[in-house]
């Protein structure tokens, strides 16, 4: 489970990450990564729209994504904001497919972040 200290809660933070962050799209999800001050823990948030399914399906997808991101939260730079938006395909995707898409998106986002700083 994603620790409480690493959860993104403020609407302004979601907006900042989506509008100003780097984007990496995959078939089941889209990841956005925004760097901020280096003094805080990395934060992760999730967007699961009604196009994914009904409330039960959306909550299941959100729980699965939270579990997967918790395994990668230590890879994120300090002070960063990560927003993961689920695509409709996430509702029917298996665990391995979601995990592979998240891993691939994070690789692209982190590779871009390191290139942008150098």
Please give a structural write-up.
With 118 residues, the protein is of the alpha+beta class. It has one domain (4-117): Ribosomal Protein S5, domain 2. It is 42% helix and 18% strand. It has three helices and four strands, in the order αβββαβα. Strands 1-2-4-3 form a four-stranded mixed β-sheet, with helices on both faces. Strand 3 (43-47), helix 2 (55-70) and strand 4 form a beta-alpha-beta unit. Helix 2 (55-70) packs across helix 3 (95-117). The chain starts with 10 loop residues before the first helix and ends with a helix. The model has no long low-confidence stretch (mean pLDDT 92).
Q: How much strand? A: 15-25%
Task: Compute the number of structural domains.
Answer: 1
Overall form: globular
Task: Just name the CATH architecture.
Answer: 2-Layer Sandwich
CATH fold-level topology: Ribosomal Protein S5, domain 2
Quick check: average pLDDT? 92
Helix count from the secondary structure assignment: 3
Task: Spell out the key features of this protein.
single chain; 118 residues; alpha+beta; Ribosomal Protein S5, domain 2; 4 strands; 18% strand; globular; 3'-tRNA processing endoribonuclease activity
What's the helix and strand layout?
Elements: H1 11-20, E1 22-25, E2 29-34, E3 43-47, H2 55-70, E4 81-86, H3 95-117
Parallel strand pairs: 3-4
Antiparallel strand pairs: 1-2, 2-4
